[in-house]
C-alpha cells in the first residue's frame, strides 16, 4: 500500500506538471468516472465467496458455474460500456457529461477510456477470486505493480509531451495489463483455467453449466453502485456547480483518502471469507464483533490523523503550488475514513443474502441523500461534498449496519 500511495502521488504531480491543473481535473474525472457505473463487479465477489465454502463436490461444479455466470455477465456489460462510450464520442456529447472540466480532445479520451475500461472489466473478476481464496496480499501486490506501471507510462507520456488522451489511456491500459496477469495468478490458486472460462463464457454451449447468482449478485451490485454514485459523483457535482479548480482540489485530497481507505479495507478483506464460514457454523460471538469495531475505528482515527497532517503539504506539492490543499478538506476526508472504518466489520458481517438486501436499501438511501446534500454544499468548494458524504454515510449506513450486525451476531 505505501508503494501504491507514493506512486500515485508522484504520478499526479507529473500529470499536473505536464498538462496543468485543468488537464489534471479532466484526468481525475475521467479515470474515476467508471466507478459511477454499477457494472464494475456485478456482485461477483459476493457470489464466489459464498460458493467456495458451500461447494464440496469433487469437480467443483457450483464454483465453476458461479465463475462462469459472473464472467458472462461481465463480458456482456463490457460490450455495452464500449459501445456506449464510442457512441457518446462520435456524437460529440461528452462535454455535457464532463461539465466545466471538459477540454478539446475530450471525446477521443472518452472513447479510448470506455474501450480500455471495457477490456479490463472481465479481467477484474480475478480480484474477487483472490479475495475469496484469502489471497488478498496477492491482490494488493498486483495493485502496487499496476501503480508503478502507470507511473512509468505517465512519465514516458510527459517526457514525450504527449496529449492528454494519452495520459488517460495509460491509466486504463495499466488496468488491463494488471488484470490479465491477475487472471493467470488467480486461475492457478483456484485450480481452474480462469482465462479460458472468461473468454468462453459467452458461448451458447456453456449456458447449461452456469449457476444462478442473482440472489447475491444483484443486491451486491446495488451496494457497489450506490457507493460509487455517492462518492464518484462528487467530482461531477463540483464540475457543474463549482469549477475545474474545485474538481482538482477535491481530487488532490482524494489521492490521500483512497490509499488510506484501501489500507483499512485490506485489513478487513480476510473477514469476508471468515464470516462466510462462521455463518454456516456457529456464528461470531458479539464480543468479537465489538472488538473488531473498536479496532477498526482506532485504525481509522490513526490513519486519518496521518493524512490530515501530511495531506496539505504533500497535496500542495503535488499540485505544483498552483492549488492549495486545505487542512479542512483533509479533516473532512479523515472523518469519512473513520465512519467507514468503524462500520467495516459490520458491513462485512452482513454479506449473506438477507444482509445484502438490507445493505442494498441502506446504501441506496445514502446515495440519494448524499447527492441531494452535496449539490448545495458544493458552494463551500471541495470540502462540501465530503461533509455531505460523512453525514449521509453515518446516518444511513454506519449506524444501521452496526446495530443490525450486533443484533444478529
In short:
The chain has 409 residues and is mainly alpha-helical.
Describe this structure in words.
This protein has 409 residues and is mainly α. The protein is built from 15 helices and no strands. It starts with a helix and ends with a helix. The model has no long low-confidence stretch (mean pLDDT 81).
Number of beta-strand segments: 0
Main sheet overview: none
CA-CA gap between termini: 31 Å
Strand content: under 5%
Helix content: over 70%
- Return residue spans where pLDDT drops below 50 for at least 5 consecutive residues: none
Produce the secondary structure layout.
Blueprint: H1 2-32, H2 44-54, H3 61-90, H4 94-98, H5 106-123, H6 125-132, H7 136-159, H8 164-190, H9 194-200, H10 214-241, H11 244-279, H12 286-318, H13 327-349, H14 353-377, H15 383-408
Helix pairs in contact: 1-7, 1-8, 1-11, 1-12, 2-3, 2-6, 2-10, 3-5, 3-9, 5-8, 6-8, 7-8, 10-11, 10-14, 11-12, 11-13, 12-13, 13-15, 14-15
Amino acid at each position: 500500500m505505501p508503494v501504491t500511495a507514493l506512486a500515485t502521488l508522484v504520478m499526479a504531480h507529473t500529470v499536473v506538471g505536464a498538462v496543468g491543473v485543468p488537464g489534471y481535473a479532466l484526468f481525475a474525472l475521467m479515470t474515476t468516472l467508471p466507478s459511477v457505473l454499477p457494472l464494475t463487479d456485478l456482485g461477483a465477489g459476493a457470489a464466489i465467496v459464498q460458493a467456495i465454502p458451500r461447494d464440496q463436490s469433487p469437480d467443483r461444479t457450483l464454483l465453476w458455474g458461479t465463475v462462469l455466470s459472473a464472467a458472462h455477465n461481465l463480458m456482456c456489460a463490457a460490450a455495452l460500456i464500449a459501445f456506449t462510450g464510442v457512441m457518446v464520442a462520435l456524437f460529440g456529447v461528452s462535454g455535457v457529461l464532463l461539465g466545466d472540466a471538459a477540454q478539446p480532445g475530450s471525446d477521443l479520451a472518452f472513447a479510448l477510456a470506455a474501450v480500455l475500461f471495457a477490456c479490463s472489466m472481465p479481467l477484474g473478476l480475478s480480484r474477487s477470486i483472490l479475495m475469496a481464496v484469502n489471497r488478498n496480499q496477492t491482490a494488493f501486490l498486483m495493485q502496487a505493480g499496476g501503480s508503478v506501471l502507470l507511473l512509468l507510462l505517465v512519465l514516458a507520456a510527459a517526457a514525450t509531451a504527449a496529449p492528454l488522451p494519452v495520459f488517460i489511456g495509460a491509466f486504463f491500459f495499466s488496468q488491463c495489463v494488471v488484470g490479465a496477469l491477475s487472471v493467470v495468478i488467480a486461475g492457478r490458486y483456484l485450480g481452474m483455467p480462469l482465462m479460458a472460462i472468461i473468454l468462453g463464457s459467452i458461448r451458447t454451449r456453456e449456458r447449461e453449466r452456469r449457476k444462478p447468482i442473482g440472489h447475491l449478485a444483484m443486491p451486491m451490485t446495488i451496494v457497489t453502485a450506490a457507493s460509487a454514485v455517492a462518492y464518484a459523483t462528487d467530482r461531477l457535482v463540483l464540475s457543474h456547480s463549482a469549477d475545474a479548480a474545485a474538481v482538482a482540489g477535491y481530487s488532490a485530497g482524494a489521492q490521500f483518502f483512497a490509499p488510506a481507505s484501501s489500507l483499512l479495507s485490506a485489513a478487513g478483506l480476510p473477514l469476508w471469507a471468515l464470516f462466510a464460514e462462521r455463518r454456516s457454523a456457529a456464528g461470531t460471538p458479539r464480543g468479537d464483533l465489538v472488538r473488531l469495531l473498536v479496532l477498526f475505528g482506532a485504525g481509522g482515527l490513526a490513519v486519518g490523523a496521518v493524512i490530515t497532517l501530511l495531506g496539505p503539504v504533500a497535496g500542495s506539492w503535488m499540485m505544483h503550488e498552483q492549488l492549495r490543499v486545505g487542512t479542512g478538506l483533509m479533516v473532512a476526508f479523515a472523518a469519512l475514513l473513520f465512519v467507514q472504518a468503524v462500520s467495516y466489520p459490520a458491513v462485512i458481517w452482513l454479506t449473506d443474502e438477507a444482509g445484502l438486501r438490507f445493505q442494498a436499501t441502506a446504501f441506496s438511501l445514502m446515495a440519494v441523500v448524499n447527492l441531494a446534500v452535496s449539490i448545495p454544499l458544493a458552494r463551500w468548494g471541495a470540502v462540501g461534498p465530503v461533509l455531505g458524504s460523512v453525514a449521509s454515510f453515518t446516518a444511513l449506513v454506519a449506524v444501521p449496519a452496526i446495530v443490525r450486525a450486533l443484533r444478529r451476531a
